[in-house]
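Kindly inspect what follows.
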Amino acid sequence: MSYARRMWPAFETYHAHIYFVPEAAEAYRRLGLKGGWMGYFASRAAALGPASPELVTAVFFNFHPAMVARALPDAWTLASPEDVVAARLETADVALRRLIPGHVGSPAEAEAAALAREAVEAPALSGRPLFAALRSLPWPDQPHLVLWHACTLLREHRGDGHVASLTAAGLDGCEAHVTLTATGSVPRDTLQSNRKWSDEEWAGAEDRLRARGWLDAAGSLTDAGRAGRAEVEARTDELAEEPWRALGPERTERLLELLTPMARAINAAGGVPVPNPVGVPAA
């Protein structure tokens, strides 16, 4: 298994609690943002500036365009991107102190933060819009937030590559979800309800995949579909290897050793539920 695949559950979990903890909804509510999804789209996209719904639909890839348009650009009339970035970092601070108090401030976390920061400062920016936007932000001072920001960068570096891989495979956002649920990794209800594709749109995506030979009549992946989905994942991993090549095998293994207990503690505290619409398994 590649380092990109082995590292993903740990850094994704350390980052992704930001989408599930109650502190996030409260922080965005204080800014005036309305509803959880407005907070989600504004907070994840804020590094891009006052992004249009079309830009966010393109960069995030798999959300129904109407879902994005219900949140943006209205969010920017209620809170500036700079204020949303600050609220998101404050949320990570408060949530991590609650979820993993035994790790925050520890020497292990400081060591992990330094390694993760070095890893994310290595990759090229070309073709990585969200990663590039996030890397333009100033680094936090405290090690647990340095680590969180680094994990955020790793997450979106991988995500930008995953979007490129899905696009190269000729899949649209709904088709990507249909093929993922067909692998058994994430239940359909979890994905469809969180990305707002209608039953009719889901059925249309299934029809297109059947015509392509990726799905059989029962909605299961064919041999061609399994091979196509495996190629998407393999290409995603290949495109996500640059941080780990820069860090080298020994220090990558050390980061994984340091980060995994923190990610598992976040899972155990309920910070990231499994299964989840992100698709990340338990660390």
In short: The two ends are 15 Å apart (CA to CA). The CA atoms of residues 214 and 225 lie 4 Å apart.
